[in-house]
Each structure stands twice: as C-alpha cells, then as structure tokens.
C-alpha cells in the first residue's frame, strides 16, 4: 500500500521513529521568551503584566507566547476579575527543565558552541 502526499501518516512518529509530539514539545520550549515565561510560572501564577515585566517584551508578544504554550497544553489560564492568571499545567515540566540543566552542565559549552544551534555564530567561530 502506498500513501499519497495528501494522506496522513497512521502514527504520530516521523520516518525515523521520533515521536512528532516530542518534536513539537521541544520546539515550544526552544524560544527564549517562552522558556523565561515557563520559568516565571514555575514560581506561581502570573498575569500578562507580570510576565511582560519579567521578559521585557511587548504585551502582544507575551500574549502570543502564552497562546502557544496554552495550545501546547503546557499552561492553563483562568480569569480573576478583569485579569487572567496563567499557571503551569503540568509540574512534570519542571523535572524536564531540571534534566535539561543537568545535561547542559554535563556537556559544558558544547551545546552553546554547536555551529547549527548554538549561540556563537559560525563566522565568529571560524575567525577564532
């Protein structure tokens, strides 16, 4: 049986067996602002204005990041008066972030210096 390009794959994995949900999760965590928002929410519920002050971005940008995190099921939102309070939906996310910090500690600067995903541009590296 062959599948044409308009048919959906029967499983939620990529061709190499990587779960597509895991890819989406790590993409949602891959933005520095969303990661900062999650770290702030790890301390407790927060309003958009609290998060704006924390991450230093415009209210509309923070709201867009919150919508992404909510759509991914990582945060919840509840009204309180005229404001909305946002919170982590799953405390297990803190375990994932702690595990990531352990991996980063174990790899030293290797991840940060990665020519594909690191923060040091390849041009700077080649000049060294």
UniProtKB/TrEMBL annotation:
InterPro entries: ArsR-like_HTH, HTH_ArsR_DNA-bd_dom, Metal_resp_trans_reg, WH-like_DNA-bd_sf, WH_DNA-bd_sf. Coiled coil: none annotated. GO terms for molecular function: DNA binding; DNA-binding transcription factor activity. Residues 14-108 form the HTH arsR-type domain. Pfam families: HTH_5. SMART domains: HTH_ARSR. The keyword Transcription applies. Keywords: DNA-binding, Transcription, Transcription regulation. PANTHER family: ARSENICAL RESISTANCE OPERON REPRESSOR ARSR-RELATED. NCBIfam families: HTH_metalloreg. This is ArsR family transcriptional regulator.
